[in-house]
Amino acid sequence: MSATLIDGKKIAAEIQEEVRQGRERLERERGIVPGLAFVLVGDDPASHVYVGSKGKACERLGFRSVTERLPAETSERDLLALVRRFNADPAIHGILVQLPLPKHINEQRVIETIDYRKDVDGLHPVNVGRLVLGLDCLAPCTPRGIMELLSRSGIDPNGRHVVVVGRSNLVGKPVMNMLLQKRPGANAIVTIAHTGAKDIAPYVREADIVIAAIGKPGMVTGAMLKPGCVVIDVGINRIPDSSTKTGTRIVGDVDFPSASAVASALTPVPGGVGPMTIAMLMKNTLRAAEGSIYG
């Protein structure tokens, strides 16, 4: 068996084109240009890359964007004041504070200070609660991107056993709740496998769909998979590779060569889930600008 690749770049491009058209319509009919504020504290190289790629997406789609780069020693008080300033700015519809933050800043306090109607990361307790209840909300971008990948690839989770490897607030928990909802494109039987298990293999082996989001390179192997299952690899791990110019390469949480020989479909890394995260951020910002979610 040779697995079909789920092309996240192609699907993300389709979504971004839909968002671009939605932005044009919103500007034409209501004179509103979606505005997104990025806040970056410190000089973490990965965070700078992420924020840069998101800013380019805003430019490409015709969004207004503002990036505030703050030194690592910025106080929590000053950061919260900046967030409140963006909360009050009618030209800003989405606020993204890039995580992780320096250790002296309470991340949860920052998240809770963001106006939940501008919380395009979907991490505010109001949005988390609405997600669990199955109500419309600004949902976390990566889990929402996973749901779109499944839907647009013709993979229906209805009645199927999904095993999510990892229980983070960013991916594992929210995607579990999305999949559990009794609605089209969801209604799955969901198991969470995490580091509390001595061996995740028995759980993974029962899955019709595996979502690997545990942050350990190559942890899910082909030997763990049920033949014909679908594999969504969320992992982005940098490992040493002397054959490359940088001396490193990016791999997922799934051992791609062995998994591709067993699965019916899977996402590559890079080029799978990653592009979907940015596409869903843009979609969240458009929806926030439209102002139709919370009444």
Helix and strand arrangement:
Layout: E1 4-5, H1 8-30, E2 35-41, H2 45-61, E3 64-70, H3 76-88, E4 94-97, H4 107-113, H5 125-133, H6 141-152, E5 161-165, H7 172-180, E6 189-193, H8 201-204, E7 209-212, E8 230-233, E9 237-240, E10 248-251, H9 256-260, E11 265-266, H10 273-290
Helix pairs in contact: 1-10, 2-10, 6-7, 6-10
Brief overview:
The chain has helices at 8-30, 45-61, 76-88, 107-113, 125-133, 141-152, 172-180, 201-204, 256-260, 273-290; strands spanning 4-5, 35-41, 64-70, 94-97, 161-165, 189-193, 209-212, 230-233, 237-240, 248-251, 265-266. The protein has 295 residues and is α/β, with parallel strands linked by helices.
Q: How would you characterize this protein structure?
A:
By secondary structure, this protein is α/β, with parallel strands linked by helices. It has 2 domains: 30-115, Rossmann fold (3-Layer(aba) Sandwich); 141-274, Rossmann fold. The chain has helices at residues 8-30, 45-61, 76-88, 107-113, 125-133, 141-152, 172-180, 201-204, 256-260, 273-290, and strands at 4-5, 35-41, 64-70, 94-97, 161-165, 189-193, 209-212, 230-233, 237-240, 248-251, 265-266. The strands form 3 sheets. A 6-stranded parallel beta sheet has the order 1-11-8-7-5-6, with helices on one face. Strand 2 (35-41), helix 2 and strand 3 (64-70) form a beta-alpha-beta unit. The N and C termini lie far apart (49 Å).
